[in-house]
Amino acid sequence: MISVCTLNPALNYTMRCEGLRLYELNQSSGEVMMCDDAGVNLCQIFKELHSPAILKGFVAGFTGEELISHVKKLGLEEEFIHLKEGLSRVNITLSGIKNTLISAQGPMISSDEIKELFDQFILLKESDTLILSGDVPPSLPENFYQTILGVVSANHVRCCVDTGNAQLSKVLDYQPFLVKVSENQLEEFFQTRIYTLNELIEYARKLKAMGALNVLVSRGKLGAVLIDEQDQALNCLPAIEEVVSLNGCEDALLAGFLAAYLDTGNYKSALKIGVAAYEASAKVLGLADYAAIKASYEQFL
Questions:
Q1: Tell me, what DSSP letter sits at residue 55?
Q2: What angle do CA 123, 129, 8 make, to 5 degrees?
Q3: 29 DSSP 8-state letter
Q4: φ/ψ of residue 281, rounded to 5
Q5: Cα separation of 23 and 264, whole Å?
Q6: Cα–Cα distance between 78 and 69 in angstroms, integer?
Q7: Domain locations in the chain as residue ranges
Q8: How far apart (Å, rounded) are the C-alpha atoms in residues 227 and 236?
Q9: Which residue among 64, 118, 135, 159 is least packed, with the fewest CB closer than 10 Å?
Q10: Does the predicted model carry a pTM greater than 0.90?
Q11: 137 phi and psi, to 5 degrees?
């Protein structure tokens, strides 16, 4: 079983407002509420690729109930801990000539509620996979991901990490099975600029040498690079002619790669499936379904 830990999931409320005027009453021309949390995106792709996955983390209040309603409508499984106080996040996007984004902090989490989550992690086995998705919320200790990895490593659980650089540097000592980063994130991590594919491979290998068994680097329209546990560099280019939306595409890359690897144990084909999932999702609003991912994958055969 794949467990996807998204500690601070959020709803996303977008309001369309042309010609936004500060300090005045503005009229929205349209609104939409959706849940495109990274953890939820991962589970959507896992579901399309027939890999069972379950969401774990925290939800709170009526916004948490709405988030769970979105998850259930998507046909996804969840084991969220329901907090006694607070509200799950609602991130705001004001969409007009320029987009303005407001990211909420999220609810406070008590020690008893943290223990409930760890009681779930203790049950994970060697045959399970745990994905740590997103950043640690402000109400939790900075070393929270380290503590999780310390707990599950005792049972030899396969762990994958997709988070910001502040958390990434803290978990490498636990030798996660996979670390997924973007090319920009890799540049920020090493405080450098990357201009060529060879330079990217060099820095991805440096990241791997710091503890990760495998490093997956997303390059957007340029596909992805994998440095596998044998230190081989694998590169896969998509064929994206027209982009409709890139929302969720990085999550599709990670989920596609992991679903294929867990099914076949083959890094090359897993990378191709991951890039196919990215490419197919870039061509639609939302995330691609199985048929679209399969069609994109067939171009690599």
A1: E
A2: 80
A3: S
A4: -70, -30
A5: 57
A6: 11
A7: 2-7+38-85+107-300
A8: 12
A9: 118
A10: yes
A11: -65, 160
